[in-house]
Specification:
mainly alpha; four-stranded mixed sheet; two-stranded antiparallel sheet; 19 helices
Length: 511
């Protein structure tokens, strides 16, 4: 309920408005058949809300899936205390990566279903002895909807493996170490079977439809995985993990966010020390080795997309998994405080003092401050997205008027244009860049990057149909003297008709 209601409060601006980004311009109606990108289940996942872009319906479904995901996370991480449940749900629904996903609202419900399936894959594996079988099915369908949430499942699996080996000492005494390894291996089975099932279904459907994997985001390189790629990618994984964590301008953007992250990290560290002291981890070498391996593995599984597609454009939609470190810190502090069963009791003047309580209160304050900061970030981004739409509307209205007033114009005339908007003629007015610079789909001044963007915007929002030619039609003319001598729009000589084709120059004069 927290995730659903808080999601409404934070993301209402985008749910009640029609403020598309550049991809949304061509997705007013989109059947979501993305099998060439490996997303063979996306069409079915988005089908419940129809293939029309109806933000309110799509948003409600997406928030419903997010609420279920929050419930599954709390069950998986054994979060029980009210403040921690609210903290986990609030962080999940406010993290800026979700706001970037809302910018692509036409596919939001499918992506949120993929996220839920990724969490359920790990939850089923934990709860049942043979839960890795339904877990593998969930993982396969999650990957078939959006591959970006594979890291989500892998991080949670590492968390659970750590939990297996860091149980209470009395449990470890009753249970041989071999049993812990057997339980941990179930997560490996789930991952391997899930990936294999995803790949088999993908290949079958590609054969049926007579298609091949696209080169988009390097998805066609999935089958070429090998040891050489692993070695070359490891360094990039660790460097990117550190760079995004500390300089990505997402986890914290100001002093308040930085203080909250430091406080939450300190609370989690304090809770871990208390648990280590209580459970005497240092007496078990195997536990220490497992903890060390897991900590080294976390940056790798977080950036697993760099292993699958080394040339990927690694934008914020693919970095939602970073929220799990904040959520994990909340869960750890809660377990060590008064709400968990692992608190450290110490007799003092006839009372019982729990050493984990300070960590719990610190995590409580930090989590709610972060939720507030992230909610502000999301709405700053939505404000700029609205302004981008309005500036694009004004620009295209002026451009369309000039096109129709050009001598020789007639409806259906072939039009060739690059698509970018010259920043010399229209200086940058985006004031939100310090906040939205890393939020794909949110930053910038206009929604136009290609000729097709112009065509879609003018058709859907201005009610005019332009016959804009494919980009390769500019190949010969682009370096011609006639084109280079033209002004950039709104210059007087920015539109010319040459050999029956209308050329529109919107980019900078000096290129």
């Amino acid at each position: 309920m927290t995730a659903f209601l808080l999601g409404l409060l934070i993301h209402m601006p985008v749910l009640l408005s029609d403020i598309p980004n550049h991809d949304g311009l061509a997705s007013m109606y989109f059947d979501q058949n993305m099998i060439t990108s490996g997303r063979w289940f996306l069409m079915a996942a988005c089908g419940a809300s129809s293939f029309f872009t109806v933000p309110w319906v799509i948003g409600l479904l997406g928030l419903l899936f997010l609420g279920l995901t929050a419930a599954a996370l709390c069950e998986l991480l054994e979060v029980r205390t009210g403040w921690a449940v609210v903290g986990v749900s609030g962080l999940l629904v406010s993290f800026p990566a979700l706001a970037s996903t809302f910018a692509y609202v036409f596919t939001l419900d499918g992506y949120m279903l993929a996220l839920l399936l990724a969490v359920l894959a790990v939850l089923f594996t934990k709860k049942h002895r043979r839960g890795f079988l339904p877990g593998a099915v969930c993982l396969a369908f999650s990957l078939g909807t959006y591959q970006g949430y594979l890291a989500f499942a892998m991080i949670l699996a590492v968390f659970e493996v750590l939990a297996i080996f860091c149980r209470e000492r009395r449990e470890t005494v009753r249970r041989p170490l071999g049993g812990c390894f057997a339980e941990a291996l179930r997560y490996l089975y789930m991952g391997v079977l899930g990936a294999a099932l995803y790949y088999v279904i993908l290949q079958v459907l590609l054969k049926i439809q007579g298609k091949e994997l696209d080169t988009y985001q390097g998805i066609n390189g999935m089958s070429s995985f090998g040891a050489e790629r692993l070695v070359s990618a490891l360094g990039d994984m660790y460097r990117d993990f550190v760079a995004f964590t500390f300089r990505g301008n997402v986890l914290f953007q100001n002093g308040f966010g930085l203080c909250a992250c430091i406080l939450l990290a300190a609370a989690a560290a304090f809770a871990a020390v208390c648990m280590a002291k209580h459970r005497k981890w240092w007496k078990n070498l195997a536990v220490l080795v497992i903890i060390g391996i897991a900590l080294l593995a976390l940056p790798v599984v977080t950036n697993v997309i760099l292993l699958i597609s080394p040339d990927v454009n690694y934008h914020l939609l693919m970095r939602y998994q970073w929220v799990l470190y904040l959520i994990g810190a909340v869960a750890l502090a809660e377990k060590c405080g008064s709400g968990g069963n692992a608190g450290v009791a110490e007799e003092k003047r006839g009372t019982v003092w729990r050493a984990g309580v300070p960590a719990e209160w610190a995590a409580f304050a930090a989590a709610f401050l972060l939720i507030f900061c992230y909610g502000l970030t999301d709405n700053i981004a939505y404000t700029n997205l609205q302004k981008r739409y309005e500036k694009t509307y004004a620009y295209c209205l002026r451009l369309l008027d000039r096109i129709e007033q050009t001598k020789g114009y007639y409806p259906g005339i072939p039009i060739a244009m690059v698509g970018v908007v010259g920043d010399e003629q229209f200086p940058t007015t985006d004031l939100t860049l310090p906040v939205t610079g890393n939020m794909i789909g949110m930053s910038g001044d206009v929604l136009l990057y290609t000729g097709r963007n112009y065509e879609a915007f003018i058709s859907n929002y201005l009610g005019a149909t332009l016959n804009i030619l494919p980009a390769d039609s500019m190949a010969q003319m682009y370096y011609a003297e006639e084109y280079m001598a033209m002004d950039s729009f709104p210059g007087e000589n920015s539109i010319r008709i040459i050999d029956g084709v209308m050329y529109i120059k919107t980019e900078n004069v000096n290129r």
